[in-house]
């Protein structure tokens, strides 16, 4: 059997990632019929179908095997190139990351600026993604690593940093719930105007799990996929929402927003993690970036401030 044609494997990867041959061709800048011919030729050469061509293309078992080989090969090539670049003191290279909106302010401020200043030859590619999409990007090797809030345990992912960052209820400082000296029951929150983020995010999935365990449901005044919209909803005095303390730390220090613990273990135990795909060799640049985030990002340098305060109590 001849060696795999790398162009055909690239087309296969793109078709699966984008869900159709036409979208993959548009993304790659090639003619759809040419892409299709390459994939048909690869299937004929291997003597087995690799794709199920329906409204959204899917892999056959043989296709999964071939695509995993291609992605492993690409990862190994990047790691080798990275080690060669390390011999040049990280003067060149790239780190591709997936990150949720809730981490952006923490990342884009000093941590990213300092990293780029330390390694001026490195390039950073940042993809905004919800939890579900970010995990998919890691598994498909579309990114080197992902910054995740409340990810599920997954044997295909390796966690390099794991910090406890509870999901609190945030509200205007003058809100009645702000005066509560004890954790807030989920049922009491339902009596107040509420905004919720959608279920593709870690925050949304956590709230859904907490409500399911408590046999409750909410009727929010507003639903959104934007952390910024949630913050403005609260800042404007329209109501309350769920958010980690660090996401609104500046507003808490200003006195405009208050964060209160919620009486739900799934929210109290929420984690922030930096993950990569299991068995995937990390580039030197990615290793350096993770090490830098461990030192400089508030979400990953320590547990949430309230958690640390509790741990230091006598």
Automatic annotation (TrEMBL):
<dbReference type="GO" id="GO:0005829">
    <property type="term" value="C:cytosol"/>
</dbReference>
<dbReference type="InterPro" id="IPR050950">
    <property type="entry name" value="HTH-type_LysR_regulators"/>
</dbReference>
<dbReference type="GO" id="GO:0003677">
    <property type="term" value="F:DNA binding"/>
</dbReference>
<protein>
    <submittedName>
        <fullName>Transcriptional regulator, LysR family</fullName>
    </submittedName>
</protein>
<keyword id="KW-0238">DNA-binding</keyword>
<dbReference type="InterPro" id="IPR036388">
    <property type="entry name" value="WH-like_DNA-bd_sf"/>
</dbReference>
<dbReference type="Pfam" id="PF03466">
    <property type="entry name" value="LysR_substrate"/>
</dbReference>
<dbReference type="Pfam" id="PF00126">
    <property type="entry name" value="HTH_1"/>
</dbReference>
<keyword id="KW-0805">Transcription regulation</keyword>
<dbReference type="InterPro" id="IPR036390">
    <property type="entry name" value="WH_DNA-bd_sf"/>
</dbReference>
<keyword id="KW-0804">Transcription</keyword>
<dbReference type="InterPro" id="IPR005119">
    <property type="entry name" value="LysR_subst-bd"/>
</dbReference>
<comment type="similarity">
    <text>Belongs to the LysR transcriptional regulatory family.</text>
</comment>
<feature type="domain" description="HTH lysR-type">
    <location>
        <begin position="4"/>
        <end position="60"/>
    </location>
</feature>
<dbReference type="GO" id="GO:0003700">
    <property type="term" value="F:DNA-binding transcription factor activity"/>
</dbReference>
<dbReference type="InterPro" id="IPR000847">
    <property type="entry name" value="LysR_HTH_N"/>
</dbReference>
């Amino acid at each position: 059997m001849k060696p795999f044609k790398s162009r055909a494997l690239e087309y296969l990867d793109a078709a699966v990632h984008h869900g159709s041959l036409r979208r993959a061709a548009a993304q790659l800048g090639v003619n759809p019929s040419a892409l299709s011919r390459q994939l048909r030729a690869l299937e004929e050469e291997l003597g087995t179908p690799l794709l199920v061509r329906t409204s959204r293309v899917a892999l056959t078992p043989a296709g999964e095997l071939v695509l995993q080989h291609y992605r492993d090969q690409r990862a190994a090539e990047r790691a080798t190139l990275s080690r060669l670049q390390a011999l040049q003191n990280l003067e060149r290279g790239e780190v591709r990351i997936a990150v949720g909106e809730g981490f952006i302010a923490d990342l884009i401020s000093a941590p990213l600026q300092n990293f780029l200043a330390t390694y001026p030859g490195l390039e950073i590619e940042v993809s905004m993604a919800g939890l579900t999409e970010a995990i998919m990007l890691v598994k498909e090797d579309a990114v080197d690593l992902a910054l995740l809030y409340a990810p599920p345990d997954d044997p295909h992912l390796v966690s390099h940093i794991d910090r406890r960052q509870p999901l609190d209820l945030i509200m205007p400082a003058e809100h009645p719930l702000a005066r509560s000296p004890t954790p807030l029951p989920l049922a009491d929150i339902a009596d107040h105007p509420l905004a919720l983020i959608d279920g593709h995010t870690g925050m949304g999935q956590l709230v859904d799990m907490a409500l399911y365990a408590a046999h409750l449901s909410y009727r929010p005044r507003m639903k959104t996929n934007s952390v910024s919209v949630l913050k403005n909803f609260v800042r404007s005095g329209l109501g309350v929402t769920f958010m980690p303390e660090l996401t609104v730390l500046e507003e808490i220090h200003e006195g405009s927003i208050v964060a209160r613990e919620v009486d739900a273990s799934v929210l109290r135990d929420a984690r922030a993690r930096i993950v990569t795909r299991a068995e995937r060799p990390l580039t030197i640049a990615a290793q350096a970036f993770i090490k830098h985030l461990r030192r400089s990002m508030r979400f990953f340098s320590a547990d949430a401030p309230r958690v640390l305060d509790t741990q230091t109590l006598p």
